[in-house]
Amino acid sequence: MKTIAVANQKGGVGKTTVAVNLGAGLARRGRKVLLIDLDAQCNATQIVHRMLSESEPGMCEVLLNERSLTPIIVPTKQENLSLAPAGESLANADLNLAAMMGRELFLRNLLEPLHDQYDFAIIDTGPYLGLLTVNALVAADYVIVPVSCEFLPLLGLKFLLETVRKVHDKLHSKLKILGYIITMYDRRESITFQVEQTLLDHFGDDVFKCRIRINTKQKGAPGRAQTIFAYENSEQGRGTVDFDSLTDEVLARTEGG
Description:
Low-confidence stretches: none
Number of helices: 12
Strand order of the largest sheet: 3-4-2-5-1-6-7-8
Radius of gyration: 17 Å
Oligomer: single chain
Structural class: alpha/beta
Distance between the termini: 16 Å
Mean pLDDT: 94
Order of helices and strands: EHEHHEEHHEHEHHEHEHHH
Helix content: 40-55%
């Protein structure tokens, strides 16, 4: 199982959109995928499943009690795509984890028994660099960094990269950045090309070649609790084309195909 954390401490850059639709894209290619919702906003859970009730255990309960992930994993409408859901209790997880021994390793330990059951685990993280995100990075083989075509997410990258470096140096020496994916790409805006060129200048081939373009259907899909593939229902749909391209590049970078 290859584990990919989708991370950027800046909100509104498309992390959940990338995590959900990359997971669905890989599942469409026949890979068995586990999508893990580690964002307290629980948007991934709502898109591919439903909001959990207060009595239903999710990622918070599993992490804090160091239980097996298997009982909370649910199937989704997309074949080959399963979900480890999160509820509102995840908002308190960072605070509770802070007092626990080995707190950075909890998620990695939980994923170890599942390595033979899935080809990929995709972790959706929150818009901050707390213990949940550190858990995601320690559990991951790779990080995908979504960067929207604005200056603030670009400026904030240094904080994420510093966190990745510290995790690499102190907790997980095999952690790698798989690539930077440019989101909300709009050729009508000059800022798009400025951000694109800055990323290419700094990170070169680590920037994915595909771009996730501005797309009204991409905004509408979560409201219908659907992936972009199901919502567009067309192989020529803009979002479908974009996420198929991202899926191709991720497979090439992780499987060499």
